[in-house]
Every structure is written in C-alpha cells, then in structure tokens.
# Entry
Amino acid sequence: MAETPQGPEPARRFDPLTAIAVVFFLMAVAFAAAPAINAGPATLAGLMLLVGLAGVACLGLFVLRSTLETPADAEPGAERLVEALGEPAALAGPDGRIHACNAAWREILGEAPRLPKGGSSAASLFSALGAARRGESAQATLRAAGADHAADISPVGAASGARRFLVRLRPAAPERLALPAAALEVLTAAAGAKAPPPKVLDAFAAASPFGAALLEGEDPFNAVIIEANPALAGMAGPFERGQAFGDLIETNSRQDAAQRLAQGMEGALEVRLSRDPAKIAHLYLSRTGGRWVAYLVDVSDQKQMELQLAQSQKMQAIGQLAGGVAHDFNNLLTAILMQLDSLAARHPVGDPSYEGLNEIRQTSNRAADLVRKLLAFSRKQTVQREILELGELISEFEVLLRRVLSEDVTVDTEYGRDLPHVRVDRGQLETAVMNLAVNARDAVRAYGGTTVRIRTARVTEAEAAALGYTGAKGDQALIEVSDDGPGIAPEVMDKIFDPFFTTKPVGEGTGLGLATVYGIVKQSDGWISVASKMGEGSAFRIFLPVYQPAIGVPAPAPVVKAKTVARDLSGAGRILFVEDEDAVRGVAARLLRARGYEVIEAASGEEALELCELHAGQIDLMISDVVMPGMQGPDLLKQARQYLAGAPVMFISGYAEAEFSNLLEGEANISFLPKPIDIKTLAERVKQELQKAA
# Structure
C-alpha cells in the first residue's frame, strides 16, 4: 500500500509568549543561584540584566534563523497553482519529497511520497534537482511502473537556493492518428450513443483530396451545404453555401442514388456529376443528429480502367469463339473447294453444269473471305510481315482508295514529316485502312458531309497518350482516318468493334469491318482508338510501333514476288496425309492420287505414328493438320521424326502459323499452308516441297 505523502514542513515563526517565558525562566534561575554565590544586590541586578540581554540576543538569533529558513514562497498559493494546472504537476522539496500534487499527476504516477527514480533515471533526477537549486530549469527522467516519463523541473521563485521545485510531466507523443470526426460519428452511432451534430468539418475532411461537405436537412440530396472543402468545388464546380447538395449531382443519377439509399443500401453510392456527366464519383454519407457529412471520391479513371478491362475480356472471349468457328468453317470450305476442283475437271466450260459450279465457287470464295475476317478479328490470321515506309505505303494505296470512294466524297491526305518504317503485313494494313475509309464515306453520305481525311504522322509517346494510346512505349506511327459525319452515339461506342454489330440497314453491312480492323491492328502489335462527338464527326487512329533495325544488321531487301507461270502439277512420291476431317482427307487424297502420287491416309496422330513406323524411311512427304483430337500435329512430328529420315513436313491449318510456331523450335524442313485450300494450291506446294527435298 502506498504511503500517504506528507505535507510541507511547518515553518519556524516568532512566538512572543514563548520568548517572554524563556526570559523569565532565565531570570528565575539567576535569582535562585544568587545566594549560592554570595551575590549582593548590585551584583544580582547586574546578573539579572546580563541574563535578560542574553535572552533577548538568543531570541533575536532565533527570529533571524526562523526568517532565513522559511521560504519566501511558502504561502499556500504554490499548492493552489499545482492543483489548477491541467498537466500532471507536483511541488517537491530538495530531497525529492512531494509536498503537493494534482489529480493528473496521481493518475499517472500514483500516490508515491517522493519523486520516482530508478536505474539511470536516478542520476538524471539528482542532476536536475542540483540545477534547480541554482535557480535553473532542468529536465529529468522519472521512472515509475517500468515506464520512463520526461519531466521539467524549475525552482519556485527566481532566487537560487530555493527549497521547493515545480515538477511537470511532458505530454507523451501520440501513438496513432486521431480518427476524423466523421469516423468517430459512425463509431459512436454504432455503439448506440447519440453524438451532437457537427458544427464544422474537421481538419481531416477540410484538407482531404476528395470532396467533403457538411449538410443540414433530413434528406441528404435536398439538404443545404453548410460548409465544404476546396476539393469539392474542384470536382463538382462552383457552388454557394445554402445551395442544395443534390444540385451537384446529375438528375437521373441523383434519383437512382436516392432510391438506393431509401432501400437501405450501405456503402458507396455511384453517382454522376452535373458539371460533367462523364465524371463518375462514389458518394459516402454519414448522419449525425440533423446533419449529414458527405464525401465524394472521383473514380472516373478507375471506372475507365474497369470498362477497358471488361471490353478487353469480352473481345478476347469473342475472338476465341470466332477463331474456333473460323477453323471449323475452313475445314468445310476446304472440302467444298476441292470437290469443286474435282467436278470442274469433268464439267469444263460449255458444259450445262459449269455455270452452277462457278456460282458455287464464287459463293465459297465469299465465305472464305468472311472466315478470313473472323480470323483477322481473333488475331489468328496468317500474316507475312515486311518492312514498309509508312508514307510510301499510304501513297501507293491512295490511288486505289480514290477509285473505291465515290466522286462526291473528297479524300484529303496529309503526310507528316520524318515518317517512320513499320513492320506489318501490307495486305492486312491496306484492308484495315480501306474498311475505315469506307465507313467514313458512308457516314459522310448519310450526314451530308463532303470529306474523308487520312493523316499519317510520327508521334512521340506523350503525343500518342494525348491521342488515346495511354500505353504507348516510345515513338509510334500514326494513321488517322476521320470524317465530318454525324459522329458515333455514346451508347454504341463500346460495341463498334464487336463482330456482326452494325448500325447500317439490313443487307448493307456484315458488321465485320471494324472487327477486322481491330484484329489486324492487334495482330500487328498496334493500338486503335476512337474519338467522336455527335454532330462533329469521328476519328479512328491506328498506332503502330516504329520499326527499329538491330544495330549492325542491314534492313532486309524488299520481297519481289515471282510471276506465276503455268506448269505441270503432276508428280511422284509417297505422301502421308494426316487429317481428322474425313471430307478434307478423302477428297485431297483422291485428287493427289489423280496427279500421280501415292497417298497413305491417317485420321489421327496416333494412327499416323503407327504408319510412320510401318513405312520407316519410305515416306517422301508428310502433310498433317495441326489441331486434332488426341495427338496434335507438332507432337506427332517430334515422335515420328525418327522414322521420316529427313523427309519434309507440311502443316495445314485454319489457324495462323504463329499459333503453334513456338512448338516447332529446332525442327527443320517445315512449311505451312493455311486453309481453306484448293487442289491447285495444294498440288503446287507438294511438288515444290518434293523438288526441294530431292
């Protein structure tokens, strides 16, 4: 149990009655001793006078000592000062004994009678008390309950040699940040307590980078703004105090948010701002008493990223579906085209069936073109990239483009300076620009415009970001196709690249034009962005990476296509034909046999491997599909290579070669032929491969 602290030592003060009693006591002693020393009257009187003077002198010394030993500030005012202090404080003597302390001191250090010390804090306290005796303020460390407390010690009174000192504990540093008033209100409400309504925004809300406002009223959307931080004006535009908070929110969005709030929805309410409906914000509301605290957080960039991610995932899913459908259609078209070749040999020009077969071929070619567009969208089309100068590419293509666009539409071309080289498939890029130009022509005609503009330029990374390509890395080659047509409606903007989506009347478009452009640009490692305003036209911008040749490696020479010459397509040799589609395998094998080849058929990779082992060293060429049930074409090659004795291998597929080329690393004598295939193309390639191997 702690000792009760003793109060201050009682002051030694002069008492007249005690002094008189002492003088009379000394005189009585002198009078009683006079007979013993045979003192006469004169001697006795002198003795009595001497005793009186000695008593008076002693009393004077007593009074002087009492005065010196009594502190000048020993009056009760020092104790009252300690009690009035809001901080933990105590009045202590030079020996460390506590004379008085306030409640804040006792709450921290308890009822100890002396200043607490221990360990290294003892030396600190001893030094501080010594400095305080000299009339100096000092600092010390007080140790209590295993914890150190910093304290300031100063003498009471300015004179040195003071006998009492004021000891004040320093406030401890906060261990955590204080919660904002809004958070405290929420916690208080959750605990069931009723907090008073706030009068002003707290410092946290006032300095926040997001909008904050204090509202008064029952309905937050009709409540008036009492106070708001600067960030709210930056988000929602200028407003006045006393204005309804709902005026800052777009009308339809405000109604939806009010309905969700009435239904008891918790958390953030997604709203659009009246100043700019394209701006999306999350609204957080907290109610205390008759007032609301509202927070508006701008999430426009976050929502844009979410939309881009969702759009990318949707396009990827559609691309996978389109690629799978195109692959199956390619197999069917290959069978149809080969059967047409077989029938055409028996029904030449002049035969009654020739016209019907020719129409079937034309329809099949249109279907093959449709499949190529699907493959282009899904980025699985076979490409043949070459190094091209951007300005020269568009300049050569402009001649054809002017013939396609009608005379009532003006084509305005603008060539920038220092145009870069790009590595692309010429035919694919021309198709992309053609589709954009045709769409621009149709938009101009429908709206009464006159001009389609094509602009090429070299743009920096920052310029590309400003034009819509935020992920650009380094300089980019820009091809922009714009028009002065009606523009694109916002509600269809996120659908324009979807396959089979079109705003044209039925029968005037397949909805694959922009989908094809999207796939071509993506397969070329580029980016496409759209800028459009209703009534002002649209601009489609294609960004392609600038080709940078490796240091010390000369640029490849332009590819010169050899002229096609008629030649004999017959030949000799043993061919292993591996195809899981019976219609394709059967007709191809029959037509190759008709041209003199020996054909061994296999319906799967496993069956082909057994035939390779059976005819080891006797196969001159293996033709195989890539995607098959069970063993795939590349896997078949790796296991059958030991039986082929260096024979060439030709893969045929409805997918692009890039889809599986990484599976063929280290393989030699490999070629690729994309589907759909007619017999003439197949026979030409077979003869070429056999001649190279001979």
User: Anything to note?
Assistant: The chain has six domains: 16-69, 77-169, 181-298, 305-377, 386-545, 574-693. The first helix runs from residue 16 to 33. The two ends are 111 Å apart (CA to CA). Residues 283 and 296 are 5 Å apart (CA to CA).
